[in-house]
Amino acid sequence: xxxxxxxxxxxxxxxxxxxxxxxxxxxxxxxxxxxxxxxxxxxxxxxxxxxxxxxxxxxxxxxxxxxxxxxxxxxxxxxxxxxxxxxxxxxxxxxxxxxxxxxxxxxxxxxxxxxxxxxxxxxxxxxxxxxxxxxxxxxxxxxxxxxxxxxxxxxxxxxxxxxxxxxxxxxxxxxxxxxxxxxxxxxxxxxxxxxxxxxxxxxxxxxxxxxxxxxxxxxxxxxxxxxxxxxxxxxxxxxxxxxxxxxxxxxxxxxxxxxxxxxxxxxxxxxxxxxxxxxxxxxxxxxxxxxxxxxxxxxxxxxxxxxxxxxxxxxxxxxxxxxxxxxxxxxxxxxxxxxxxxxxxxxxxxxxxxxxxxxxxxxxxxxxxxxxxxxxxxxxxxxxxxxxxxxxxxxxxxxxxxxxxxxxxxxxxxxxxxxxx
Length: 421
Description:
Blueprint: E1 6-7, H1 10-19, E2 25-27, E3 31-32, E4 38-40, H2 48-54, E5 58-59, E6 67-69, H3 75-86, H4 91-96, H5 100-107, H6 114-126, H7 128-147, H8 152-164, H9 185-192, H10 194-205, H11 210-217, H12 239-254, H13 260-270, H14 277-290, H15 294-297, H16 307-331, H17 335-358, H18 370-388, H19 390-395, H20 403-416
Antiparallel strand pairs: 1-5, 2-6, 3-4
């Protein structure tokens, strides 16, 4: 995000310039550098020339406040996009239909400030998947709010939160948004600031309520303190922030799962206390009603090993990692190593608590119904996923580790990153 007397964010600017080839984006006022030198005139269309002029130039006013989308996304377009999603056969949309009429009614009353309108327009033109995610977030957040008989004001806040929760991602280098590539700690540091960036953007450049901007800053937090960027616990989070955390997780799972509601319900119940219970209940109820094809969603085991055998391998890896983390913590001469090992122990113990609460071993695999096989499959996938990312979650706030500390911790990281059988 650009700030007064600061540089324009190159990633957001590149998206805006790319979108200007399809949409009319112009300067809403003269764009001046910090010394008052005019870089771009009012009403002049955005082009690549502006991008070149802004390189390494500090601005007198935030760039986002100096541009407008003349043919930008309107309330009517949002209404149409949300309606098209709710009318579709998408697995998420089908479960939201009981609240569809109310969502559609309220969407047209949601105020879209010129700054988020600019960014939504840029996303719609140059990154359609980002705009699609925003629309789906709007619909899901609206349905969740409506399910608790919220008043119009609270529901409109939820709709806005769902629409704008990931706005900060436009300010992140796209290489860190590629979900196919695992992030190291340095890359994770870049990604982890996007909730704060989105909240700051809306707080400084719009007149939206503080409750909305706060919630957007919290949409990756978790009630047990395991989220980011501030590692808030449930008592420190707003109710809307807790709702948006469930929106984000559900939509993320829906992007790759063939049974998104059942998968999301399992993932959110896996670690007790990670998500707000009332919203987990909403997802669990949707999963029961969705009647998803769990056999189709359960992929064949890798490498010839059965799902149960893979689960046993993950369980052994988990126990081994807990012991290693505790050994490193007790023997550490470095405060940094001790702090990281303690964090790893805490995260691993959370996973073991979740494992113990699953109760997945009551029947033989051959006799298990589709739901049980799906839960084994999800348990294996979720545990493996979470183990791989414990290293990142432990060190991203620490900065660059010295070689000696890194070497001490490498044994633990190697255990966590072992391939499955």
